[in-house]
Write a structure and sequence with these properties.
Radius of gyration: 27 Å
Pfam families: CBS (PF00571), MgtE_N (PF03448), SH3_actinomycetes (PF26205)
Number of domains: 3
Organism: Corynebacterium pollutisoli
InterPro entries: CBS_dom (IPR000644), CBS_dom_sf (IPR046342), Mg_transptr_MgtE_intracell_dom (IPR006668), MgtE_N_sf (IPR038076), MgtE_transporter (IPR006669), PRC_barrel-like_sf (IPR011033), SH3_actinomycetes (IPR058838)
Largest sheet: 13 strands, mixed
Keywords: CBS domain
Protein name: Mg/Co/Ni transporter MgtE (Contains CBS domain)
Structural class: alpha+beta
Strand content: 15-25%
Helix content: 25-40%
Length: about 425
Amino acid sequence: MSAVTRVYAGRLIGLQVRGPDLDPIGRVRDVVVTIRSAGTSRALGVVVELVNRRRIFVPMLRIAAIEPGDITLATGSVSMRAFQVRSGELTVMGDLVGAKVHTDDPELPNLHGKAVEIADVELERTRTRDWVISKVAVFGARPKFGRSPSLYTPAFSHVHGLSAGGAGESDALAEKLAGFDQMRPADVANILHEMPSEERHQLANELDDERLADILQEMPEDHQAELLETLDIERAADVLEEMDPDDAADILQELPDDKAEVLLELMDPEESAPVRRLMSFSLDTVGALMTPEPLVLTPQTTVAEALALARDPDLPTSLASMVFVVRPPTATPTGQYLGCVHLQKLLREPPSTLVSGILDPDLPPLYADDDQETAARYFATYNLVCGPVLDEGNHLIGAVAVDDLLDHMLPEDWRSEGLRPGPGVDKHRTVTYG
């Protein structure tokens, strides 16, 4: 019987592993691979479960032949150390199967711009005896009525959204991460900006989703997109969910349309819906700058309740400076917009007062199609840092903050130039207050 030179990893699971004397050793439980964004992605070895349930690692180079019924080793000498995933390694069954990816295979245009699920990976033996990943079996859209989904096999070179995993971290890496804990996201972003790309990517992979989202929002747009693309596609979607919708929309507009659509599809629908709305506005309008999640209240809300909501530590200070009062529903786009109340006025009123009785109904709103210069004049005229954005039907659809406006009006490279650009100035100087 001829040895196999091309096989799907899933077909190896459960196969009997025999020594060169054909005595059984154990059975295959997984295949260990390494994923490279540039270069060859290959299988490193198989995880073998011994008769005593211990799992060990057997390198692919120790395998003499893979046959339909079993695997034969070239040597009976194998390490008996318990298997542990190392940094940069992934397992097919544990990490790849079930993972979401996207493909731009020209022979499968029906899958472009869609998230697909990995069902298996094809391994092919080369002349150097390496087993490289040649194709990926993926499920298309799941049909209705419980029918089996269609299976496609794009070339691995046209599959995107996977990155190498990691297990453990060096002392130096742990020390850097610990140093970030008490720093502002903008300061961490400055440090990451100055790092070599490989180190930047390594640190990003170790940060939790929420922290990485906060830092990503403070980075130059080219680094935002670059860093996001180094993450597993499912994690990238999770990080986008943690970001403010306007910042998530900005990053997605820097990515190719297919990749952006895949990420939006993987996001929770409640998180992706406002991002999609923001992406529908022209980039130079107020609609593209606004956040769809301002502080929105009903007329029956008391001053005490409004102040309690404004104290939310997760609410940016600019958005906490103003509450907007509407008729239900309060989710944007809201019911009829009634007016707003500035935080300073809330602080001067008795706690039991209803916000409907202290509205500023005369403050004009901004509209989604207003340009950035109009917004700048608005803030300068009314001495505000946050303003309501309405649609033509007098519904509140969001709020624009002055910091988001400045972010777009400053030169594109303002983040990389630092706070005080110019010769002789430490652009990332940190000031410590006693």
